[in-house]
């Protein structure tokens, strides 16, 4: 028969201290994030920070690089325009007469 493995007292104390530290840390983070009043400053946060002003983005597209090599030297491959061949049935939803699947 198998014997139940016993944890030494020293190891049990260390594991209990680690578990207690984890529970205290989780409680601290939950209280600071969700349960503290909105007016109270959360730990490590500076509520009087200045707003960072981001410059506006340029939205114009510069396309002068297309007129230079190697883009200018590109050639079309194939026959254009592509003309599709007639394929399929006129009504794809109509019943297929000799079908094995019904």
Task: List the SSEs and their pairings.
Blueprint: H1 9-35
Transmembrane segments: 12-31
Keywords: Membrane, Transmembrane, Transmembrane helix
Describe this structure in words.
Keywords: Membrane, Transmembrane, Transmembrane helix. The chain has 102 residues and is mainly alpha-helical. The chain has a domain of 29 residues. Helices cover 26% and strands 0% of the residues. The mean pLDDT is 81.
Features:
26% helix; 1 helix; 102 residues; mainly alpha
In which range does the helix fraction lie? 25-40%
- Global outline: extended
Mean pLDDT across the residues is 81
| Helix-strand string | H
Helical stretch count?
1
Q: What structural category do the secondary elements indicate?
A: mainly alpha
The Rg value, from CA coordinates, equals: 36 Å
State the separation between the terminal residues, measured CA to CA. Answer: 62 Å
Q: How would a textbook summarize the main sheet? A: none
Keywords: Membrane, Transmembrane, Transmembrane helix
Transmembrane segments: 12-31
Briefly say what this structure is.
It contains 1 helix and no strands. By secondary structure, it is an all-alpha fold.
